[in-house]
Amino acid sequence: MASCVEVFFWLLMILLCPWSHLLSCGSSDLFQPDYLMVPVSEFSSSLETAINAIQNVTSTVSQFSHVSNDFHLSNAISDCLELLDLSAELLDWTLSASLKPDDGFDFRTWLNGVLVNQDTCLEGFDGTSGTIKSLVEERLSQVTSLVTGIRDTVHLPPDSMGGGRNPTNHEQTFPSWLKHEEKKLLLQPLDKGSADVVVAADGTGNFTKISDAINLVPKHGIDATVITGNRNAADGFKSYKSGTFRVKGRGFIARDITFQNTAGPQKAQAIAFLSDSDLSAIYRCAFRGYQDTLYAHNLRQFYKSCLITGTVDFIFGRSTAVFQSCQIRARKGLPQQKNAITAQGRKEPGDGSGFSIQFSHISAEPDVTAANIETYLGRPWKLYSRTVILQSYISSAIHPKGWLPWNGSFALGTLYYGEYMNFGPGARLDNRVSWPGFHEIQDPSVANKFTVAKFILGDSWLPSTGIQYTDGLQV
Ligand SMILES: *[C@@H]1O[C@H](CO)[C@@H](O)[C@H](O)[C@H]1NC(C)=O
Ligand SMILES: *[C@@H]1O[C@H](CO)[C@@H](O)[C@H](O)[C@H]1NC(C)=O
Ligand SMILES: *[C@@H]1O[C@H](CO)[C@@H](O)[C@H](O)[C@H]1NC(C)=O
Predict the structure, then answer these.
(1) What domain range is 79 assigned to?
(2) Pairing mode of beta strands 438-440, 416-420
(3) What's the pTM?
(4) What residue stretches are annotated with the Pectinesterase inhibitor domain (predicted)?
């Protein structure tokens, strides 16, 4: 009789764990999600190995954090440590979510986010030389191949998420962790006024913390609350950390704030705002700068009714971001410069990142055209750069070719640039670039892939921010 029970037991295991190696099928494998190509147990143990590898790299890199008196190198090291820390967090999120069923569609974004961090860490060492750089490179490449392997065992998110909702009727339900006063603040009507407090970490202003000042300021709105800074590459801040304002973590919300970098066009790269926050939502904010104003660095981001100004590559990064109903305005920089509105950094086909600009107004300030400065919609920072412009106004300030090469023929066959149902004098397509990667999108089902519902799976997280949005192609 005993053997009968045993046979029954094994049969049950086979029925419950059809994809799994019989002996490794534990209770957590009972929830084998269909977005994974490997058993959950294998997925989790690969994640644990990757977390371990990141810890190893971290301890290698941190050995150098006190030895360098080279400003550039020590910045690169501290940026890298911060990025490794973010990566460990992303792997932790993935690991804990993998132990629960039905939580899977974030995995690819999170794992890809680790790869983005890896590359940003390495970029920090560009222009430095010596053993530290090559040691870091070697250690990081082990993590990169581990994590790439894990990412590619996760299927792409289902294409059917979210469609068919009434876009303008999202309830204003706020995250449970918001305090009552914070909800009131988010619901306040826009009101312009002059800024009247100064926040300085060194104690020379009215406050040392931004949050203390924001609690006190009676008036909110673009250019009423201004967060300002002027760090820049020309003065030695080449690093990822040089932005005026940086945010990481999950679920960042901002409203009615201006973020600016006042370094000016002579100072080269000068970031006003950098976001690493997954599921971040930014509403009615302004980003003012020149080169590299807005660094949409990593993970999923949504910008609604924002003003973004700059010169070279002023919206750049490797996040998956939708810009909806934004005003995007090129400014006058240096005479020999060409303006590129975007420089998206998608690096390989498995990388899900890209920029989608929808219902927006794209133009340049009058002195740009007066000075004959050419302005383009974007150029390919990395090999698989991906940007689409949907249903937007494009002014005559945009060059008829539309898009600018990065360096010779680099990326022209692998990038994906698309335009769909845009209007205005700069939207004509007859003189656009003829690169293999450029697409005049005519099929709405192709355009639909770049909407809030599909591209950033917004219907699963934007309603909780209280920010109104359109999830598809219809207003
Ligand atoms: C991390 O370092 C330890 C100790 O050097 C080593 O045993 C282990 O294999 C390393 N793990 C990974 C994933 O590299
Ligand atoms: C901030 O500091 C300035 C200069 O010291 C002062 O004039 C102003 O009243 C202060 N504002 C507040 C709200 O304390
Ligand atoms: C441009 O491409 C050429 C040829 O591929 C390469 O040698 C050069 O370093 C590149 N220049 C820049 C600035 O990337």
Answers:
(1) 40-153
(2) parallel
(3) 0.82
(4) 26-153
